[in-house]
Structure formats: C-alpha cells, structure tokens
Amino acid sequence: MNHPDLAGVDALRGRSLLTTHDWPIHDLAALLDAAARLETLDRAGADLTWLRGELAYAMFFDNSTRTKSAWAGAAARLGMHPVIVDGTSTQVSHGETAEETGAMLGMNAHALGVRHDLILGEGNAFMRDVQRGIDQYRAATGDERVVPVVNLQCDVDHPTQSLADLLWLREHFGGDVAGRRITMSWAYSPSYAKPLSVPQGVVSLLTRFGAHVTLAHPPGYELLPEPMAWAAEGAAASGGSFRVTHDMDDAFAHAEAVYPKSWGPHALMLQRVQANRAGDSAAMKDIEQRALAHNAQYRDWICDERRMALTDDALYLHCLPADIGAEVSPGVMDRFRVDVAREANKKVYVVMALLAAAKVPDLARVLHHTPLGGTP
Ligand code: CP
Fold this sequence. Notes:
Blueprint: H1 25-43, E1 55-60, H2 66-77, E2 81-86, H3 98-106, E3 111-116, H4 123-141, E4 149-154, H5 159-172, E5 181-186, H6 197-206, E6 212-216, H7 225-238, E7 241-245, H8 248-252, E8 257-261, H9 266-277, H10 281-295, H11 305-308, E9 315-316, H12 330-335, H13 337-359, H14 363-369
Parallel strand pairs: 1-2, 1-3, 3-4, 5-6, 5-8, 6-7, 8-9
Helix pairs in contact: 1-13, 2-13, 3-4, 5-6, 5-13, 6-7, 9-10
C-alpha cells in the first residue's frame, strides 16, 4: 500500500486545534499524512463513516463559504451530522460567557468548530474559554465523550487554512516544502479590512517545515508580534529562513510559490478593538473607511503578470475569496483558477483528519486497513 507510516496519528486522540503553534511538528506531520490518506480513500469512494450519529456543531461569528462547506463536507463524509449556526444568534450576544457557551454546546455535540476572527485579542481567547467550558462540564459530570474544538479562523491563526495550504504545497512540490522559496505578500484590497490570521498562520507554519519564507507588506501592515516570533523560531529550528521586506518585487524575485493577499492596517485593527469593546458602531464604520483609504495608498501592490515573471515559475496561492483586479490581475487568476480551487479543496481533508484523529480509536490501523472503495 503506497502511503506513509500513519502510527503518529494515534497520539492525536482527544486533541483540539486552536493554533498550529500549540502542536509539536511531528503531530502536525502525522495530521497531514492522515489528511492525505483520507483524501485518497475519499476519492476512491471508500466508506469512511466511522462517526455515525454524532453531532458536528460549528459557530461562525463571521462570513464563510469554503470553511463552512469544508466543515460540513468533512462531518458528512465521517457519518456525522453537521450543524452550522451564526454565532451572533447565540446568547453570546446577550452576555453569556464563552465558558458557559462551551459547556452548553459541548454537552450535546461531539465536536465543535468556531470562527471568531474579526477583533484582535478576542477570537483565540474565546475558543480557549469554550474548550475550558466543555472540559469542565465533562469532568464534572463524568461524561467521557471526546469533544474536540477546532479553530475555523481566529484573530491569531487560521489553522485549517494554513494546513490545507501546506498539504497543497507538499503535493505541488512532490512531498516537501523544505528549502522552497515561498512568499507571503500583502496585496491591495478595496473591499474590507481583512483579518491578519491567514498571513500569520502561513508564515508561522511554513517556516517550521523548512521553507524559506519571505513576508512582504507596506509599512504599517505589520503582523502581531507573537506569530512573527513563532515564524522566526520555526525557521531557526527547521533550517528554513524568515525575512521581511517592504518591496513586493523583491519578495517575488525567484520565489517558487507566492501567496499575495490583503489584510488590514495594524494600528487601525488595534483601534477597532477599543471601538468594539465600547460598542461604538459609528467608530467601527469610521475605522473601516480609514482602513480602506489607507489600503488605497498601495494600489500597485497587485499580483500581475509582470510580477509573476520575476518568480521562478511560481505557483500562485490564495485562501479565497480574492479581489480580482486589486489583489490579483484577472489574467493571473484565470491561469491559476483550478489550482486555487484544488488548494481550497484540501481543507475538507484537514478537517476530516482533525475530527477522525481526535475521535476514532486506533485510527492508524483503521486507515491502513480501510480498502479503497469499501469498509474495513
Ligand atoms: N479561505 C477561507 O477561510 O474561506 P471562507 O472565508 O469562505 O471560509
């Protein structure tokens, strides 16, 4: 059977994923191997419904197309019932704490996904409180169900995205990103001040796998200090490298993969925290307009054919949705339309791997023995 040794996946039983930084690299590698195996089995039509009758509940405090469908698609392939709710429709908006919410949702569900990405300092802390609420409820009641919490994007990280990106990059590069020159670049967007979590997740993950990562952005678009430190530490430990430039052409020169996307100006994203805490919706709108005006100073930060020609025939990546004509030229997007769809499709297998690794006993053996197109 042509697939990697999956023994490491059994160490992931019961595990939640709140940032990739929380996980040792060998556990991330085991998860990626499981995701690749699940993809092979799923594409071959294998029956993977090991979690029949279980509830996969997810709460989204922000819009989503791909991640919602990846959550639902992963749960359905495993035989679970996916349910996705608008987070603002829960009692969180009436003051229920994250711990209470975790306990109340976790007592009925068998896995919980959360997206809470818009306000710096809040989303990841919310998820950790939700997990504490579930764990305390289960301990107090002797409930032995495994209820992993999966970060479906927060203010710090977007781990199912960065792991899907890594899975796609590994496939593109024939199995490994070590030694590859990969650029994560800011790009102009007129649509909204986007979260910082995708670039933070990408630079802090790829550096740990030995890639030579360049981060490019105009002055004023710095990422949070913590994921920047993780990226520097990851590069030092892996033999990769991490550098920052304020020149998009420099970042594209000789790159083998480029990931140009927008995010909001750092100072205004911090101001949004205060306005949100004060419940000041007029200030929130004003900050958004100022962020877009700030972005407009850098309209020339676009991924176009001229910049792609500076690269070593680079693969173009985007988490989607992309602002076509702003972040990326229509021609470049047309050329890579199928590639970015395949990149997006990897997320369903990352979520499947997270749910299966946390919940299916003896998963390594199950994955080894599941026949292509049948049951184990
Ligand atoms: N890339 C990504 O997370 O897409 P959605 O916002 O549509 O889920």
